[in-house]
Amino acid sequence: MSAATIWFRNGILGLAALGFLKFSSSVIGDYLHRDPFEAFRQPDNIELEARVAIRLEGVSMRHYKGAELIATANADRMDQWKDAQTYDLYGVKNGKFQRDKKSYTFSASHAQYYSPLKRLDLQADGAVGGKDFELRTEKATFDGMAEVLTIRKPLSGKVSGGDFTAATFDYNLKTEMLQATMISWKGDPGEDAPKKQGQVERTAWKFDAETLETSKTDKDVKIYTNGQATDGEIIVRAPRLEQNKRTDVLIATGGVTYFSGEANVSCQKATIYRKEKRAVLDGKVLMLVKPKARKDDPPKIVEIPPFKPVVPDDIKITRPADPKSDAEEQKRIDEKIRSSKNLRDYPMTVFSEKIEYWYGKGSRRAIITGSPQAHQEFEDGTWRQLWADRADYDGEKETMFLQSLKPESREVRMKNSIGDDFIAFSILASTKEDDETISAKSMKGVMYTIDDEIDRDKKKKPPLPDKKVPPPTKGGGLNGPIKGGL
Questions:
Q1: Higher confidence at residue 216 or residue 448?
Q2: Is the pLDDT of residue 352 over 90?
Q3: Please, which pLDDT band fits residue 104 given cuts at 50, 70 and 90?
Q4: Alpha helices for 339-375 (secondary structure H)
Q5: Cβ partners under 8 Å of residue 146, min gap 6
Q6: What is the DSSP string of 159-179?
Q7: Which residues lie across from 166 on neighbouring strands?
């Protein structure tokens, strides 16, 4: 082959190779710069927002952490921003997030996911759910890095099986601890617990409080601050309320006020055992016992009048002597003050260190300890007062039993504005209407007649007699005979 022929052939092959390389380079470059989602893009006649790079319709999402499926959801539409980190989701439904075998649900008309922080914002018609809550709100945030659910818009739904509203809500997905503000909750915390035979039927609790949080030591306990709780039979208000879902026990502390149909109470601590309908009231307990005519009234929040504990000798006779007063009218007043049948006709204030009170209908009774004393005033300014080591009130039998705890001591004392003054080891009095039955043990004292009341302040008060009060002859109450052995 001549040299000219070889040069021509090599030239042709070189041009061919050069043309192929230029063609290949053009094709490869075009492929490398091509948008892999081009087939999914909207047609050119659909104008996207300036920030949107990709728009997908009818999206089914799956998010994995390694080989573990963390979250799933469906959306009518997804817009990926040009930053390739922000995603707008529309018509989100069937959202599910898994963590440590715990499942949480979510949905929203509009949501936004920011991948660097693993944060999902539900921005319209948001709904979130977990084992202990189902809530709806206008804005909720799942923080995937901190694993916290945060709501900063008014919300409503269910928490612990009860109807719930709040201003804000925070829930830790790792610890299952919740915090909320300006809350209202209504439900039966023990509704899932099996009812024991003979157990009283429980009504729903309703709580209103400034804050709510789960106890750090017991997940069944929720703590309310500056709150109020009611079940229709009682109302409890306190700076701190602890509600135990498992035991259905409520503990109120820090200056408590307690209201029921029969009595209103202030104290330092109140423990409500709802399964038994029993309340234990501790610490400077002040109880205002309502008149019997109002014992079935629903509980109502009213001011509890103050009461200063006193010793018997500190109380002076307050009714002025009036020798010109009508004897029959004076006798009527004296009988009213000395009678026990009207014990429940007038409000009575009781002060003690502790009161244990069963408030359920059919089982109403109270045990009052810690040197209780009771004061009762009448409309004309007259009064009577009782002291004892312990008092037992039976609301069903309608009896009051006052007793001394020291052997052979007379710590029960009764005094009134007439000047009567009695001491005894124990006294049992009926509180039934038209029943003045009183029995006493080791009683002695003094009782004034109308003649004694004239110029009483000028007379020396006689000492308590050592001899026993004479046995009954007729009538009842303390306006004459005392029934029972003395």
A1: 216
A2: yes
A3: very high
A4: none
A5: none
A6: ETTEEEEESEEEEETTT--EE
A7: 155
Residue 362 near residue 373, CB atoms below 8 Å: no
Cα distance from N-terminal residue to C-terminal residue, the chain:
154
Whether the per-residue pLDDT at 451 is higher than 80: the answer is: no
Positive/negative CA dihedral, 244, 284, 385, 388: positive
Measured distance CA(454)–CA(474) in Å, rounded: 26
From start to end of 66-101, where are the E strands?
Answer: 68-81, 86-99
Segment 181-210 mean pLDDT: 72
Which residue is listed with tokens 């009231």?
A: 281
Burial of 352 (0-12, 13-18, 19+ CB in 10 A): buried
CA distance 38 to 261: 75
What is the C-alpha to C-alpha distance for residues 415 and 394, in angstroms, rounded to an integer?
Answer: 23
Q: Which one, of 335, 325, 264, lies nearest residue 299 by Cα? A: 264
CA distances from 41 to 29, 89, 472 (A): 21, 16, 107
Of 147, 151, 136, 161, the residue nearest 220 (C-alpha): 161
Encoding tokens for residue 423? 């001491």
Tokens of 42: 């909207």
Report the b/e string of 46-58 with b at 16+ CB within 10 A. eeeeeeeebbbee
Looking at per-residue confidence, does 25 or 465 come out higher?
465
| Residues 420/414, Cβ–Cβ less than 8 Å | yes
pLDDT value for 319:
56
Q: Which helix (H) or strand (E) holds 272?
A: strand 263-273
Is the pTM above the cut of 0.70?
Answer: yes
* Mean predicted confidence (pLDDT) in 49-53: 87
CA atoms of 52 and 88, how far apart (whole Å): 9
Token pair for 113 = 């996911």
Contact between 66 and 79 (Cβ < 8 Å): no
Per-residue model confidence as pLDDT tens digits over 322-336:
555 577 777 888 888
Query: Comparing C-alpha atoms, which of 433, 350, 438 is closest to residue 390?
Result: 350
Separation CA 431–CA 317 (nearest Å): 25
* Beta strands 168-172 and 148-151, pairing class: antiparallel
